[in-house]
Write a structure and sequence with these properties.
Helix content is 70%, strand content 0%. It is mostly helical. It has a domain of 73 residues. Helix 16 runs antiparallel to helix 18 and helix 19 packs across helix 20.
């Protein structure tokens, strides 16, 4: 009998690894998005007028609570945000660990799942603490998926049905922010699938799923209402209708989409570095890798259908759907930067890895069935796909660990500039702090944010007298 301790012990080790990486690669200083956050919310983090705004859901309300704690106890520490991000990632791993234990997933497959979960292809999200709530959001998504899986399988716990009614609203209103779109579409599709499957078997409508779907739809409407008041401001974006762009450069959209899948094998920055230095990787290689990843998706989908895995568990299908839809979402929302490599950015790895986890779970849960003689070719193909994911992510993590000291040095340069910002020019600040480098006014905005920190003894100024 497998030890349950291994299924929570491995996530703990993964979280400790990411915490160690943060210690090696970062320094506690604001930069990038934090410039805007400081100017918008500090120092009066208790001000209700900054919370009760029409587009509050787009700003992720849990951030307000975290910001109050951070300012009150840690003088606005970026390291605190980063640690919360790692804890959120660890929580995601624990949720999937509980599912893996419940479904008797083999320890080898679970270990592969965890290696991919804690891959440093997410380095940008890990080092930029402002995205800490996104890690928490995905843990909540996985938890909701698992509750649904339990209820459908007849293994529900007490209050699980109540949770399915409340979770979409709580998650969307509290922590999901812009990530709620794919999450809610995924659960709605899952509810419709469950309802349709039940009807085909019994010729009866399971009204529970109508209630669950209604809760998700209400959550969507709440977010859409809030988002209607938000002002979009994408620096460097083109202002051209989607259909016009699609008709004028269809190849661009195809290449953008395919390359985004390749980032799940080779992290975006690693792949582009190899491309720049012509080290085993060409543009065509990235497209080929992307197509292979898409093939892995299709194989996992076919396996779910061929072996009727959905009769026992629906969670792998939900992960596959969520991962695929995230690729579509990034294409539709980020094509405006007219850069076909933009979808390979590390900032999207958290979204894209959802589908890869679904592929691993599918193969792991069906491994014994795939071991039959007539299925050996399919088994071999699955092994090749997983070996590709594992090798690429381990290599990406290896390269990122090599870069960690240089990232820390850069943060230390930012900290030095922050402490001595009065003697730095706006151009120097704009370049170092990575905040809207193409806008002339960004230097002044950085200076204004640093003034707030200095006046209130926050962040790099917390030890100043």
């Amino acid at each position: 009998m497998k030890s349950k301790h291994l299924y929570w012990g491995i996530p703990v080790l993964g979280a400790l690894f990411c915490l160690w990486y943060i210690n090696q690669a970062t320094f506690d200083v604001i930069y990038s998005d934090y410039v805007r956050l400081v100017s918008s919310y500090l120092p009066d983090v208790w001000n209700p007028h900054k919370f009760f705004v029409a587009d509050v859901l787009t700003r992720i309300p849990v951030n307000y609570i975290e910001r109050i704690i951070n300012v009150g106890l840690f003088d606005f520490s970026i390291t605190f945000d980063r640690v919360l991000g790692v804890l959120g990632l660890g929580l995601s791993a624990l949720v999937l660990g509980a599912y893996s234990f419940r479904k008797n997933l083999g320890l080898i497959w679970y270990t592969i799942l965890m290696i991919l979960m804690f891959s440093l292809n997410k380095w940008e999200m890990l080092t930029n603490g402002s995205g800490w709530a996104h890690f928490l959001a995905f843990a909540c998504f996985y938890y909701h998926y698992q509750v649904l899986d339990r209820v459908r399988a007849g293994e529900e716990k007490r209050y699980d049905r109540v949770r399915l009614v409340l979770l979409p609203v709580i998650i969307t209103v509290g922590v999901a922010g812009p990530y709620c779109a794919i999450y809610l579409v995924t659960v709605c599709l899952a509810y419709l699938f469950c309802m349709g499957y039940h009807y085909l078997k019994t010729r009866d409508v399971d009204k529970r799923y109508l209630i669950y779907t209604g809760s998700a739809v209400i959550s969507v409407l709440l977010y859409m209402w809030s988002n209607s008041y938000a002002v979009e401001d994408h620096a460097g974006a083109v202002h051209e209708p989607l259909m016009t762009a699609l008709m004028s450069m269809p190849a661009f959209f195809g290449r953008f989409f395919i390359k985004s899948f390749a980032s799940m094998v080779l992290g975006g920055e690693v792949a582009l570095d190899m491309l720049e230095h012509r080290t085993f990787v060409t543009d065509s290689t990235l497209l080929l890798i992307g197509l292979v990843v898409i093939a892995a998706y299709l194989l996992a989908l076919w396996l779910n259908i061929r072996f009727r895995l959905y009769e026992d568990t629906i969670l792998p299908l939900m992960l596959l759907a969520g991962g695929g839809l995230n690729h579509v979402l990034i294409l539709l929302s980020r094509w405006i930067f007219i850069n076909e490599n933009y979808g390979m950015s590390s900032r999207y790895a958290l979204q894209f890895q959802v589908g890869i986890l679904g592929i691993v779970l599918t193969v792991g849960l069906l491994w014994k069935q795939l071991g039959r003689k007539k299925k050996r070719l399919t088994q071999a193909a699955a092994v090749c796909f997983l070996a590709m994911f594992l090798t690429g992510n381990l290599y990406t993590s290896h390269k990122e660990l090599q870069k960690a000291p240089y990232r820390k040095e850069n943060f230390e340069r930012i900290a030095d500039a922050a402490v001595n910002f009065e003697s730095r020019t706006d151009d120097e600040l704009r370049k170092l702090f990575e905040y809207r480098r193409n806008e002339e006014s960004s230097g002044a905005k950085i200076r204004a944010a640093l003034e707030i920190l200095k006046e209130n003894h926050y962040n790099v100024f917390s030890d100043a007298e």
